[in-house]
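Page 42, continued from yesterday. The earlier attempt failed because a stray header line got pasted into the input along with the sequence. Redoing it now with the clean sequence only.
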Amino acid sequence: MRKVSAHIHVYGRVQGVFFRANMKKVADTLGLSGWVRNLPDGSVEAYAEGPEESVKKLVEWCHTGPPAARVERVDVEWGQYTGLPSGFKVRWS
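This time it went through. C-alpha coordinates are written below.
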Protein backbone atom coordinates (compact mmCIF):
# COMPACT_ATOMS: atom_id res chain seq x y z
CA MET A 1 0.00 0.00 0.00
CA ARG A 2 1.51 3.33 -1.12
CA LYS A 3 1.83 6.06 1.52
CA VAL A 4 1.70 9.77 0.68
CA SER A 5 1.40 13.20 2.24
CA ALA A 6 -0.88 16.12 1.44
CA HIS A 7 -0.50 19.77 2.41
CA ILE A 8 -4.06 21.15 2.29
CA HIS A 9 -5.46 24.70 2.31
CA VAL A 10 -9.22 25.14 2.60
CA TYR A 11 -10.85 28.51 1.82
CA GLY A 12 -14.35 29.85 2.46
CA ARG A 13 -16.36 29.95 5.67
CA VAL A 14 -14.23 27.38 7.42
CA GLN A 15 -13.42 28.97 10.78
CA GLY A 16 -15.89 29.01 13.67
CA VAL A 17 -17.79 26.05 12.19
CA PHE A 18 -15.92 23.18 13.93
CA PHE A 19 -13.91 22.45 10.78
CA ARG A 20 -10.73 21.54 12.67
CA ALA A 21 -12.49 19.31 15.23
CA ASN A 22 -14.40 17.48 12.51
CA MET A 23 -11.30 17.10 10.35
CA LYS A 24 -9.51 15.52 13.31
CA LYS A 25 -12.35 13.03 13.74
CA VAL A 26 -12.25 12.10 10.05
CA ALA A 27 -8.45 11.82 10.04
CA ASP A 28 -8.50 9.69 13.21
CA THR A 29 -11.10 7.39 11.67
CA LEU A 30 -8.92 7.03 8.57
CA GLY A 31 -5.82 6.33 10.68
CA LEU A 32 -3.90 9.37 9.42
CA SER A 33 -1.10 11.34 11.04
CA GLY A 34 -0.72 15.10 10.81
CA TRP A 35 -2.26 18.34 11.97
CA VAL A 36 -4.80 21.08 11.20
CA ARG A 37 -4.85 24.78 12.15
CA ASN A 38 -6.61 28.06 11.44
CA LEU A 39 -4.69 30.76 9.57
CA PRO A 40 -5.02 34.53 10.09
CA ASP A 41 -6.52 34.98 6.59
CA GLY A 42 -9.59 32.90 7.59
CA SER A 43 -8.50 29.71 5.84
CA VAL A 44 -7.64 26.33 7.33
CA GLU A 45 -4.30 24.62 6.73
CA ALA A 46 -3.65 20.93 7.26
CA TYR A 47 -0.96 18.34 6.67
CA ALA A 48 -1.87 14.65 6.50
CA GLU A 49 0.10 11.46 5.93
CA GLY A 50 -0.86 7.85 5.50
CA PRO A 51 -2.14 5.36 2.96
CA GLU A 52 -2.89 7.09 -0.34
CA GLU A 53 -6.57 6.10 -0.43
CA SER A 54 -7.14 7.35 3.11
CA VAL A 55 -5.44 10.69 2.42
CA LYS A 56 -7.56 11.05 -0.73
CA LYS A 57 -10.71 10.46 1.34
CA LEU A 58 -9.69 13.23 3.76
CA VAL A 59 -9.06 15.62 0.87
CA GLU A 60 -12.46 14.71 -0.57
CA TRP A 61 -14.09 15.44 2.81
CA CYS A 62 -12.38 18.88 2.82
CA HIS A 63 -14.41 19.91 -0.24
CA THR A 64 -17.56 19.79 1.93
CA GLY A 65 -16.42 19.93 5.56
CA PRO A 66 -18.88 20.00 8.45
CA PRO A 67 -22.51 21.10 7.90
CA ALA A 68 -22.00 24.80 8.79
CA ALA A 69 -18.94 25.21 6.53
CA ARG A 70 -19.11 26.81 3.09
CA VAL A 71 -16.02 25.63 1.25
CA GLU A 72 -15.06 27.79 -1.73
CA ARG A 73 -11.73 26.23 -2.69
CA VAL A 74 -9.35 23.45 -1.66
CA ASP A 75 -5.70 23.53 -2.70
CA VAL A 76 -3.61 20.38 -2.27
CA GLU A 77 0.11 19.83 -2.65
CA TRP A 78 0.91 16.11 -2.78
CA GLY A 79 4.21 14.91 -1.39
CA GLN A 80 6.20 11.99 -0.14
CA TYR A 81 5.42 10.19 3.08
CA THR A 82 7.83 11.24 5.87
CA GLY A 83 6.71 9.00 8.74
CA LEU A 84 5.22 11.47 11.20
CA PRO A 85 4.44 10.06 14.66
CA SER A 86 0.96 8.53 14.93
CA GLY A 87 -1.99 10.80 15.60
CA PHE A 88 -3.72 13.81 14.11
CA LYS A 89 -3.53 17.03 16.12
CA VAL A 90 -5.44 20.29 16.22
CA ARG A 91 -2.94 23.13 16.37
CA TRP A 92 -3.86 26.45 17.94
CA SER A 93 -1.29 28.50 16.06
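Notes: The two ends are 33 Å apart (CA to CA).
Reminder to self: strip header lines before submitting.
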